[in-house]
Amino acid sequence: MEVIFEEATIRFPPHPSPLEVIAIQSASLLTPCPTSYEDNHQSYHLASVISVNALDNGSDVTKLYQNIEFEYVPKKPNVLGNGQFFYQPRCAWWNKEEEYWTDEGCTFVGIKDKHVHCHCNHLTLFGLVGELVQFPHTDSQASAISKLAQLGHAMSIIFICLTLIIYCYCGLYKVLRVFIHTNLAIALFLSHVFLWIAFEGRVSNVSGCTAVAAIAQISVLATYFWICMEAIHLFLCLKPAGSALGNIPLYVWFIVCWGFPLIIVLISVAAKSNSYGYSVYKFTKRDELDEINWCWLNKEDGILWSVGAPATIIFVINFVLVMLCLQELFGASNKESEREEMQLSQDLVYSCSSTNAS
């Protein structure tokens, strides 16, 4: 059974007995609304509110054998302010006791043919709610910023490639210090390329988006690890045991700095594969809701800590190592000054002794 309104279509699941359906569509609100979401973003109605009830032999239907389907035609809400407005559509229903809109029991399926599709497992007062994320830049400003970012990515990639060509042509990568720099340049190159792809929204395939996000995460983590390895190498070179570094095979450094990021990402993907890649939605100039895919880590479920935690630990390690390196350098400088002063004193005593003897 279907009930068709101007802004929504309702499809009822099969039921063992005939139902008497009562569906009422209110006027379009397109205004702010209270929600149960905890991220402090303002939410707006994107379609008319629809009340749906059903009677089975005069009794209210309290159990659905399958989900009821909604197909909304989203409308642009009346949002005040300048900038870009992105929305996260949520299929919601009105909780009378708590007096807010919640999506518990309802699922946002996606957008098809410019319509928002929802599934819900009960009957009540339904609505399509858009959680607003506002950016301060207008479309023209965002376009200019995007072009500058693309130019920055392109310039970085070009100079990183030149660096790698020089290292490989001269055969310098066989030296440990240059080997670290070479791998750091490779990690930076991959980070620029895949983050560029990730935020341009050009990957529509879910598996492809997950792969792009995972490779970008590996590249970013590898960049941090190679920076940390550079700090460790610098510190050990200032120690007497630093000469032993040359005895460590280069592949050991390679396995450590690329292996750990790979392990972190594999664990993250296995635990929360759905968090790799997420979509935001924006109304076009024709007031149609358009999907934009960002192939990066979803910020809402804590998966970003798989990058943030290692980066924080490496930052602390690098800070400590830099302080120790400075202490070592200043200590060596003070010892050299003391040695020079002692030598000067000895020369002065010798000179005075020679004068008295004569």
What is the fold's blueprint, element by element?
Layout: E1 2-4, E2 8-11, E3 20-25, E4 32-33, E5 43-45, E6 50-56, E7 59-60, E8 68-72, E9 84-95, E10 100-102, E11 106-112, E12 115-120, E13 125-135, H1 139-170, H2 176-199, H3 206-237, H4 250-271, E14 276-283, E15 289-297, H5 305-357
Antiparallel strand pairs: 1-2, 2-8, 3-6, 4-5, 5-13, 6-7, 6-13, 8-12, 9-10, 9-13, 9-14, 11-12, 14-15
Roughly what is the average pLDDT, rounded to an integer?
80
| Poorly predicted parts | 348-358
Number of helices: 5
The gross shape turns out to be: elongated
Structural class: alpha+beta
Please compute the radius of gyration using only Cα atoms: 32 Å
Could you characterize the architecture of this molecule?
This protein is α+β, with helices and mostly antiparallel strands. The protein is 46% helix and 25% strand. It is built from 5 helices and 15 strands. It has helices at 139-170, 176-199, 206-237, 250-271, 305-357; strands at 2-4, 8-11, 20-25, 32-33, 43-45, 50-56, 59-60, 68-72, 84-95, 100-102, 106-112, 115-120, 125-135, 276-283, 289-297. Strands 3, 4, 5, 6, 7, 9, 10, 13, 14 and 15 form a 10-stranded antiparallel beta sheet that branches. A hairpin with a 2-residue loop joins strand 11 (106-112) and strand 12. Helix 3 (206-237) runs antiparallel to helix 4 (250-271). It is elongated. It starts with a strand and ends with a helix. The model is unreliable at 348-358 (pLDDT under 50).
Notable traits:
single chain, 358 residues, alpha+beta, ten-stranded antiparallel sheet, five-stranded antiparallel sheet, 46% helix
